[in-house]
Each structure stands twice: as structure tokens, then as C-alpha cells.
Design goal:
Elements: H1 2-17, E1 21-27, E2 33-39, E3 50-57, E4 61-68, E5 74-81, H2 82-92, H3 96-103, E6 105-107, E7 111-116, E8 123-131, E9 141-146, E10 159-161, E11 167-169, H4 170-175, E12 179-184, H5 189-204, E13 212-217, H6 223-233, E14 239-240, H7 246-252, E15 260-264, E16 270-272, H8 281-290, E17 310-312, E18 319-323, E19 328-334, E20 339-345, E21 349-353, E22 360-366, E23 369-375
Parallel strand pairs: 12-13, 13-14
Antiparallel strand pairs: 1-2, 3-4, 4-7, 5-6, 5-8, 8-9, 10-11, 12-15, 15-16, 17-18, 18-21, 19-20, 19-22, 22-23
Length: 377
């Protein structure tokens, strides 16, 4: 009995004097004296408080729930980043609680709220301040919330054969570090309208020999019609017709409208599923430069000349031998205009292994002289 009475007295003392701790001595039922301490911090608070739950977060939205306790008459809240709240502080000169009361949202009971239009990778906070019946504001709560960015939109891999018989494997090009621009078109006026912009940008970005690789795909027409199209618009980058699998590629993406210009990043993600509208060459330039692609001088136009190099055997299997006066820098290009080898020599003869070359047409350039050769294993 002595212990119980002493505990009540200690609690009263704690509540009345707001001491941090109270020491007391009591006797238990066995007659033993026990020394104890009551910490006044353990006394239940009757301050208005709220619990904030982050229920769901997507790439641009969030659901939250705010639950007030019985002593909270009203609460004020909003969802802002630290920078946005600091801007409000600078603008109004008020403290956070006052800003929430004056400009925030209000709740009196358990409240669910949906916030949308959020940006990924920004740390937001749910800011909440509770108040009592007299309107007194209590401690502001600041609960973090980070919007999760959407998963990357990954491009489907494909392999097709262009109108010149070259095999085009998308992932091989991307894995080589190039961004790929794909023009999916029909041979109609709408597709023809943007062709000058595409071909001009192709030359501005180095004719498939640098940061960007251009491909066009026509799912409806066969090689003969697509050759005429390419000739009409001066297309020298690969064209994949229905003959080479263009229809199957278009269905695997899939494509709803024509023309559709897609831009794929080297990590296989789709930067632009449909670059639209293309009103000028600058539209394409801006999109590619936003992806850190740089413009380069176009060295396309590797043409055969009357100057003769001696090259044999042709067709080649495992090797070719090149002879000529002062060969200097020797470059080998495939039919797509991509450099596949380069050699420095100060002699008149060069041996080049071709065992790892794919079957197809190649060009070899030494000084200003160019020759065509074929690899056939």
C-alpha cells in the first residue's frame, strides 16, 4: 500500500511541478524497500498531432493519408519540395506553419489526398501543421516523398535486309555506341513532306559514320519501289522494304501512324517514340543534340575513281593485298559508309585480313583513290 500511495504522489508531483524525473522509495508486498524513478517525459501528451502515411507513389503522382489525433481540431498541409517551400518563405516572410495555414490545404478528419503532376527524381515533402480549437499551431511535420521515375521504354530488337542486300541488326548498331534514327514511312505525300529534313539532318550528323545512324523502313512496298523512292529523295542510308522484313519490323514495334520518326539511344531505350511534328530540319537537330549527339562533317560519297589501286583477290575470303604508290593512311568502309578498319603504312603494299568481315561490298580508300571489293566466305 505504501508503494502505491508513493507512486501516485510522485506522479502528482511530476505533473504539478513538471520536473524531469522523480525519485521515490516504496516497500513491496514482501516488505522489501524498492527505489524507483518516474520520468516525466512519459506522461501522455494532449497536444494536437497527426500521422502521415504515404500510400502510393507513381512516376508523377502520389496518394497520401493524414490522420489527426483527438486533440487536433484542424490541420493544414501541402506537398512541396524544400526549394519550393523556401521560395514561399522568401516571398511571404512567414514561418512554415503560417504559410501552410494561409496558402495550404485544410483537413479536420482523416484525409486522403491525390497529388499529381509531380516530377521524377525530386525529393518532395508532405508538410503538415496541426492546430487546436483556439487556432494555436503546433509542431510542423515534414515527411519525405520521392517520385519514382518510370522504367525506360525499351526498343524491340530487329534484323532486316536493306535494298542493297546488307543485313541491318539494330542492337549491333546501338551496342556500337550510335544513336539510331528510324523513319517508318509510306510512299505518300505526308512521308515525302519530311524527307528533305531527314536527309539534310543525315548529312549534318556525319552520314552514319559518327554519333547517329539513320535507317528507313517501308512496310508496304518492295525493293523496286523503295529504290525509286530512295533515288527520288537522295537517300543513301539503309532502306528496308517489305522484301527485307520491313512489315514484320513495323508490326513488332508496333507503328500506328505514318510517317513515324523514332530515335533510339545506345542503351536500347526509346528517346522519341514519334518525333512529331517535324516542321524543319532543326526539329531533328534539336532532338539529337538534346541526346548529346554532335554534328560532324559528312565524308559520304566514297566513289570509285579513275585512279587505280592494285587489289587482289577480289572477291576476297580470308585476306586482300593492296598495292599502290605511297599508300599512307588506308581506310576500309562497308556499304553503309561505316569505317571498319584503318591502317597506317609508309610502304607500297598492305596485307589486310578479311576473315572477320561479313559478306558484302566494301570500299578501300588510300589517299584520294578508292576501290570497291567484295568479301565472300
Amino acid at each position: 500500500m505504501k508503494k502505491v500511495i508513493t507512486v501516485f504522489l510522485a506522479l502528482a508531483f511530476c505533473l504539478g511541478l513538471k520536473a524531469q524525473a522523480v525519485n521515490f522509495t516504496a516497500t513491496d508486498v514482501y516488505g522489501n524497500e524498492v527505489q524507483s524513478i518516474i520520468n516525466c517525459d512519459y506522461v501522455p501528451s494532449e497536444d494536437p498531432q497527426v500521422i502521415v502515411n504515404i500510400d502510393e507513389v507513381t512516376e508523377n503522382s502520389a496518394w497520401i493519408t493524414i490522420i489527426p489525433n483527438e486533440f487536433c481540431a484542424v490541420f493544414y498541409y501541402n506537398l512541396l519540395s524544400e526549394a519550393e517551400m523556401q521560395a514561399w518563405i522568401n516571398y511571404t516572410g512567414l514561418e512554415v506553419g503560417e504559410i501552410l495555414r494561409e496558402y495550404g490545404l485544410q483537413g479536420v478528419e482523416t484525409t486522403n489526398h491525390f497529388f499529381e503532376g509531380l516530377e521524377p527524381d525530386i525529393e518532395y515533402f508532405v508538410w503538415v501543421v496541426p492546430a487546436d480549437e483556439q487556432g494555436k499551431l503546433y509542431e510542423v511535420q515534414q515527411v519525405p516523398l520521392v517520385v519514382v521515375p518510370p522504367p525506360p521504354d525499351i526498343m524491340t530488337d530487329f534484323t532486316g535486309t536493306d535494298i542493297d542486300g546488307n543485313e541491318i541488326h539494330l542492337y549491333d548498331i546501338l551496342d556500337g555506341g550510335q544513336t539510331v534514327l528510324i523513319n517508318l514511312f509510306l510512299r505518300d505525300a505526308a512521308s515525302g513532306q519530311i524527307m528533305p529534313y531527314i536527309t539534310e539532318s543525315y548529312h549534318l550528323f556525319g552520314c552514319n559514320q559518327n554519333d547517329v545512324f539513320y535507317i528507313e523502313i517501308c512496310p508496304q512496298d518492295y525493293d523496286e519501289e523503295c529504290r525509286a523512292w530512295a533515288k527520288m529523295y537522295g537517300v543513301t542510308y539503309p532502306t528496308i522494304s517489305r522484301t527485307g522484313g520491313g512489315n514484320a519490323i513495323a508490326q513488332s514495334i508496333p507503328v500506328a501512324y505514318y510517317p513515324t520518326v523514332m530515335i533510339i539511344k545506345p542503351d536500347h531505350s526509346i528517346a522519341y517514340r514519334d518525333l512529331y511534328p517535324i516542321m524543319s530540319t532543326q526539329t531533328i537537330v534539336d532532338a539529337l543534340e538534346d541526346l548529346a549527339c554532335e554534328q560532324h562533317e559528312c565524308t559520304e560519297g566514297i566513289e570509285e575513281t579513275d585512279q587505280v589501286l592494285i587489289l587482289y583477290p577480289n572477291p576476297a575470303n580470308d585476306f586482300i593485298t593492296l598495292k599502290g604508290k605511297n599508300l599512307g593512311t588506308v581506310s576500309v568502309f562497308n556499304a553503309l559508309g561505316q569505317m571498319v578498319d584503318e591502317f597506317e603504312t609508309d610502304g607500297n603494299e598492305l596485307y589486310i585480313g578479311t576473315a572477320n568481315y561479313s559478306n558484302g561490298i566494301y570500299f578501300i580508300k588510300a589517299s584520294e583513290t578508292v576501290m570497291k571489293f567484295v568479301v565472300k566466305h
